[in-house]
Design brief:
Layout lengths: L20 E6 L10 H9 L4 E5 L3 E2 H6 L4 H11 L8 E5 L2 E4 L4 E2 L8 H26 L5 E5 L8 H5 L3 E6 L7 H17 L2 E4 L2 H8 L5 E3 L28 E5 L9 H10 L4 E5 L4 H4 L9 E5 L6 H6 L3 E4 L13 H8 L4 E4 L12 E3 L5 H11 L2 H11 L4 H15 L3
Parallel strand pairs: 1-2, 1-7, 2-5, 3-6, 7-8, 8-9, 9-10, 11-12, 11-14, 12-13, 14-15, 15-16
Antiparallel strand pairs: 4-5
Helix pairs in contact: 1-14, 11-13
Length: 416
């Protein structure tokens, strides 16, 4: 897929969305422990707008399978106690509110018939719309922007049911190739994007995909919270890498076979026996049984607390992102590249659409065999000037920048 330059726009006179009421819905409840693009966007938007973040409604399958989860359990309790209407609306921070829907949806993704799925999905959408209407009345919203974080099904009819002043569909993952979404998503997501007022994407690849169905599709960049990754600090060497010899080629992140190319790591370990390959993160079953565990210069250190990651990266000589290219990963934005660059480290990564934005500040491998040579080149060319340029680039990839691009997309879409 060729890069379409029209998916990004610039207008230095505009800075951010201001004074709006914004309702945010999506695939992740606020109470989910991990961070997300959507939560970060909500916090950034709340600096200049009133934002209502609505947790995804419970469905019967979730209630049954996750009832022992403390957050789901709390949501269930709120859903059952409908008398106290104020109990399900909470202020997170100034101008940012979180709402717990009390409506219970049906679990319908297993339905093979497209006709029956559409029938039950419309019912779910009506229940969700009812929840949003309750929340907006409690907030006193007369008019609002509705921002949908990649929720293909539950929100498909919300534009018609709620009639917001602007409906934005945000695509951040190629969900329709994932088994759960594949059956009905391949048909519904293109229709969903087509009727949105605009589509915002966090990668160039996904913006180009969306533009096939909606001309108002824009790449708005990807923010990254790199406040933890401060290259100006001095970091003690973690105990478990003190005895590992340099140069160290390091990777930090989930070590899952769906996303990480084992062949790349094998090639590096064999082609550069004088280098140590340090891998930090949880492994899936395929990696736990990999022959990489028998390689003398490969070290699996397991999952580490987020706060400790800068200490490890600081003592890597070269950082890698050996991404496996498939339908799931092809549109992904590599957040870890920003974290590596923020620490000033040379980065070698698989060549993808998303890696284009890092330009000359990262080395990209078009095929696995290129990794060893690029690692040697990255180490040989490393110097203070290059390090500072990497840090500077990483600090331009902020949520403020991403929301500014969203503002430009809105301005470009809405007639004035």
């Amino acid at each position: 897929m060729k890069t379409n330059e029209a998916t990004t726009i610039t207008n230095p006179s505009l800075h951010t969305v201001k004074g709006e009421n914004i309702v945010i819905i999506g695939l992740q409840a606020w109470y989910t422990d991990i961070g997300s693009n959507c939560k970060s966007i909500a916090m950034e938007l709340a600096k200049n707008n009133t934002v209502l973040y609505i947790n995804m409604p419970l469905d019967r399958n979730t209630m049954r399978q996750w009832k022992d989860d403390k957050n789901i359990s709390r949501h269930i309790d709120i859903a059952k106690n409908k008398k106290n209407k104020k109990e399900n609306l909470f202020e997170i921070q100034p101008n940012l509110w979180n709402y717990y829907p009390t409506e219970i949806l049906e679990s319908i993704n297993w339905i093979p018939s497209s006709f029956l799925f559409a029938l039950f999905n419309k019912r779910n959408n009506k229940l969700f719309a009812k929840a949003i209407q309750k929340a907006t009345r409690m907030m006193g919203f007369k008019d609002y922007i509705l921002f949908n974080d990649n929720d293909i099904f539950r929100s498909f009819y919300l534009k018609e049911l709620l009639r917001p002043k602007l409906y934005i569909y945000y695509i951040r993952d190629n969900l329709t190739v994932v088994e759960y979404w594949k059956r009905h998503g391949k048909t519904i997501e293109p229709k969903h994007m087509a009727k949105a007022d605009l589509v915002a994407a966090n990668s160039i690849y996904l913006a180009e995909y969306a533009k096939q169905y909606n001309k108002n599709s824009y790449y708005i960049g990807q923010g990254c919270d790199i406040s933890l990754f401060d290259a100006s600090k001095k970091y003690e060497t973690p105990d478990d890498i003190k005895d590992i010899s340099h140069p160290i080629v390091g990777y930090v992140g989930a070590i899952f076979s769906l996303r990480i190319d084992e062949k790349v790591i094998q090639l590096i370990a064999k082609a550069l026996p004088q280098y140590s390959i340090v891998l930090i993160g949880p492994e899936d079953e395929l990696f736990r049984s990999s022959s990489l565990h028998q390689q003398p210069n490969v070290f699996f250190l397991g999952k580490k607390p987020l706060s400790s990651l800068p200490s490890y990266i600081a003592h890597f000589d070269v950082c890698i992102n050996p991404q496996l290219i498939n339908e799931v990963t092809i549109g992904n934005y590599p957040l870890k590249a920003d974290e590596y660059l923020a620490m000033g480290k040379p980065v070698v990564a698989t060549k993808t659409h998303a890696m284009q934005i890092f330009g000359e500040h990262a080395y990209t491998a078009a095929k696995p065999e290129e990794y060893p040579g690029l690692i040697e080149k990255a180490l040989a060319e490393d110097n203070d000037e290059r390090m500072q340029k990497r840090i500077t680039l990483a600090h331009t990839h902020t949520w403020k920048d991403s929301v500014e691009q969203l503002t430009l997309a809105i301005q470009n879409t809405v007639p004035h």
